[in-house]
Amino acid sequence: VPHLWQISPHLYKFTGAGFGGNFHAILSDSGHALFIDCGGWDTGWLDKRIAQMKERMGLQQIDATIITHMHGDHILECPHLRENHGAEIWTLDLIAETYEHPERFDYTCPITAYGGWEPVAIDRTFARGEVLEWEGLRLTFDWLPGQTAFALVLYGEIDGRLVAFTGDNIFTSSIDSGHDAVVARNSGIFEEGYIYCAEYLSKLQPDLILGGHSVVIDKPGPQLERFLAWSYQIREAYRSLSPDESYEYFYDPFWVRAYPYRLEVSPGASATFTVIVRNHRDREETHRVELKLPEGWLATPACLEGSVEARQQEKYQVELSVPAEATEEVRIITFDISLDGRRYGEWFDMIVHVSGC
Description:
The chain contains 5 helices and 22 strands. The chain is α+β, with helices and mostly antiparallel strands. A hairpin with a 4-residue loop joins strand 3 and strand 4. Helix 4 (194-204) packs antiparallel against helix 5 (221-241).
């Protein structure tokens, strides 16, 4: 089958000839298959490849597509697979909301960034450490942040080797760590991102790593050693650049955030949202969050003051009221931040869609 490369008797990768190759397939002896990710591909091309798999390889049914992380290029064609090929969509429970309600978050590269304007419903979720027994295989789901905090690892023995599907956390390299870009808006501070990922994979010691856009990483031990060393080095680099005792305040764009990030409210009506304040320090901190509202709007409370214990977070529920004469439009509310008596300014925001619906 063109562009379908066999890794081992039951394991395949779609890639090659100008294609970005970001997904894999496990094909059982019975003809049932699991896809790992599927997005950014022409659906006609995909349908032709599946038809050829049925004609030439004995494919009977794609049972499910397992999504490794929140980025839209890994899920975009999954609804097509479900509607036209009967494949359910599975993922980790901790990340399902980013597919089903991307409007609630302000993270980079959601499905809407790739032209998929509708949320994607998830058919089945798995808890951390839950084992899927499928066609004689035991595949374990777990949280694996790195490129983004909303990601999973799927691992198990396939054709006599311990295989780990890792999304876009790591790419093959013979000389360096092979990590992906450091993007703060992925919500992956290093202790909950690349450091966690590198330590996890170093402990797991898979024989084979199958990343999203990467080629196959066979015998990844030496690269994982470089990856782990780099993860500590990059944290120290950011610490050296930060004027604060905790580098996260200048790297993490979500230590104050609104949930949901996008709120819809009708003229003359009210809606509620939550403001979450996170403390990145090893001691208690005090904060003041003042909401900057359009003229005539009302927030209760409009100023949030309090303290948060070390490495914890505090949540505040806010009721937002929009005047009846408000026009249908999109407005931004900013949050003016003070921390331990120091004013940082309007560092954070949320979007409000005033709609007559």
